[in-house]
Amino acid sequence: MRAIRINRFGGPEVLQVLDVAGPAELGAGEVLVRTVATSINPVDAKTREGAIGEGTPPLPMTLGWDLAGIVVDGGGTGRQVGERVLAMSHQLGTGRGTWADLVALPADALATAPAAISLTEAATLPLPGLSALQTLDWLAVSAGERLLITGAAGAVGGLALQLAVARNVRVDVLVSREEQLGFVREHGADFATTDRADLKDRHYDAVFDTFGALVTDAVADHGRYASIATQAGPVPDLSARGVRTTVNQVREDGKGLSELSRLVEEGVLTPRVDSAFAVREIRAAHEHFGRGGLNGKVTITF
Ligand SMILES: NC(=O)c1ccc[n+]([C@@H]2O[C@H](COP(=O)([O-])OP(=O)(O)OC[C@H]3O[C@@H](n4cnc5c(N)ncnc54)[C@H](OP(=O)(O)O)[C@@H]3O)[C@@H](O)[C@H]2O)c1
C-alpha cells in the first residue's frame, strides 16, 4: 500500500510516497479502514519540520491525524465492511499515521461519517472538530453566556463558532484578516474584529484561544480561559481572579465524532474545503498549506 512518510525532518521535500506493507493482523477491538481522504493540520507540518521535539515518534514515520474512509475489516467490533467512517488518530501519541491506503484503528476512535457530505469534506472534521468540541466542553459555556473565540476563521475556531452558536452562546471573535469577517458573521458571531484593541472594554465568561493570543484581560473574573496553542506556552496563572485556565490537548473520541457527524446531518456544522490534492501531490499540498491565507482545510484524496 501507499504511505506518506518522512525519514528525516525538513520542508515539504522530505515527504515521500512509499510502497510499504499494510498493517499487520488486527489487534483486539481494531477496525481496518481504507482511506479515501485526509487533511493537513498544523501539527502535521510541525511534525514534518521536527518542531515538536520531545514526544515525536521515531523515524521513519507515517504522518496524519485525520481520516475518512471505508471499513474493509470490522474485526468483530460490529463495524460492517463498506461502512463510511471518520476517525482521528493521535499520531504523536501512538505513531499511527493516517496518511496511508490502509489504517488499523481502535473501533472506539471511529464514528459513522455523515451521509450528507463527501468523504473529502468529512476528512476536514476529526482533529479540528474534536479540538473544538472537547475545549468547549471544558469551558462549559451555556446558553446566554458570552464567549470570545480567537482565530475564529481557522479550522478549529470556525467549528467552535458554529458549535457555540448552536448552543445559544453569544459569541464574539478575533480574526486575522478583513476577508474573514464575512465568514464569522455569516456563522453567527455577534461582534467580530481584526484588532485586539477593540476587546479592551469587553469581558467574557469564557475565552477559547486557538492561536495563542493570550488576551487574558478579556476574561471576566471567575471565568474560564482555554488555549489550544501549545506552541504559545501555558496560559498565565489567573487564579487570583478566580479564572480557571488550561491548554487543552485533543483526545481520540469516537463518541465526540458521532456528535459532530450528527451536527453535520442537522445542518449545524458546515465543513470547509480550501483545496483538494492527490497523494502524489503531497509536497505541493504542504507548500500550499504553508503559504497560509487559507479558506478552509487542505485535503488529500487517496
Ligand atoms: N492542543 C491541541 O490539542 C490542538 C488541537 C488542534 C489544533 N491545535 C493548534 O491550534 C492552532 C490552531 O489550529 P487550526 O487547525 O485551527 O489552525 P488554522 O486553521 O491555521 O487556524 C488558525 C487561525 O488563527 C488565525 N490567526 C493566527 N494568528 C493570528 C493573529 N495574530 N491574530 C488573529 N488571528 C490569527 C489564523 O489566521 P490566518 O489564516 O490569517 O493565518 C487562522 O484563522 C494550531 O497552532 C494547532 O497546532 C492544538
From TrEMBL:
Superkingdom as given in the UniProt entry: Bacteria
The EC number(s) this enzyme carries: 1.6.5.5
Pfam families the record matches: ADH_N, ADH_zinc_N_2
Top EC class of this enzyme: oxidoreductase
Occurrences of domain Enoyl reductase (ER) (ranges): 10-300
UniProt xrefs under InterPro entries: ADH-like_N, ER, GroES-like_sf, Lipid_raft_assoc_Zn_ADH, NAD(P)-bd_dom_sf
Keywords on record: Oxidoreductase
UniProt-recorded Gene Ontology molecular function terms: quinone reductase (NADPH) activity
Name assigned to this protein: NADPH:quinone reductase
Organism, as annotated: Streptosporangium roseum (strain ATCC 12428 / DSM 43021 / JCM 3005 / KCTC 9067 / NCIMB 10171 / NRRL 2505 / NI 9100)
